[in-house]
């Protein structure tokens, strides 16, 4: 059997805010080709970890490796170009652009200019429409993003993240504030894309989603991993129950 290789590894990653050790010497590995999950109680450092890895904030110490390449303190756009696509916990769509325009601007800004100027690149527009159909909002292509429901905006953001075909996608709370039927749609899509070769890291507070979707799960508590493994292993780990339930 093939040995799973790392897509993302951190070594003693640390970030403090004042006296708060938000991420505290966290050494973790996420696996290539898998649906990876990062869970933990509120305040356990998941978002800070996510932001350190994606370059949104600079860690105080420690390192981040993407496919064996040191990306510590790289700027976000450079990390994106190295193949890490990401979504935001709070949606970052352009509210006054249409749904289709949001998809086109996600690839390359000039794609949108070409489209609006009438000299559109048909393949890109077709790809955008196909992706909108996959996330289930193709009927809304001419609606302005601000008129979408919160769940639909999250689907648009997921679709626009996927437009650049990133081999590795990090999703920050994809289920947060989304109704159960849309959560199920997101879960199915993540599984399909993973079957097609995309690696995922899903950062979630929603334990159910992570447990049913992820092959490899890391549990954070107080800024560092307390358990790592499959859903079965995680669910029966007393440290996890203690962190979540305080038992
Ligand atoms: P999670 O995403 O797991 O809920 P966070 O990474 O948001 O956890 O927070 C971890 C800890 O760091 C919390 O105690 C939080 O209050 C603190 N923290 C996070 N961001 C900041 C910030 N910008 N300034 C001060 N404290 C912060």
Automatic annotation (TrEMBL):
One of its GO terms (molecular function) is ATP hydrolysis activity. Transmembrane segments: none annotated. InterPro entries: ABC_AA/LPS_Transport, ABC_transporter-like_ATP-bd, ABC_transporter-like_CS, BCA_ABC_TP_C, P-loop_NTPase. One of its GO terms (cellular component) is plasma membrane. Keywords: ATP-binding, Nucleotide-binding, Transport. CDD domains: ABC_Mj1267_LivG_branched. Residues 8-247 form the ABC transporter domain. SUPFAM superfamilies: P-loop containing nucleoside triphosphate hydrolases. This is ATP-binding cassette domain-containing protein. It comes from Georgenia subflava.
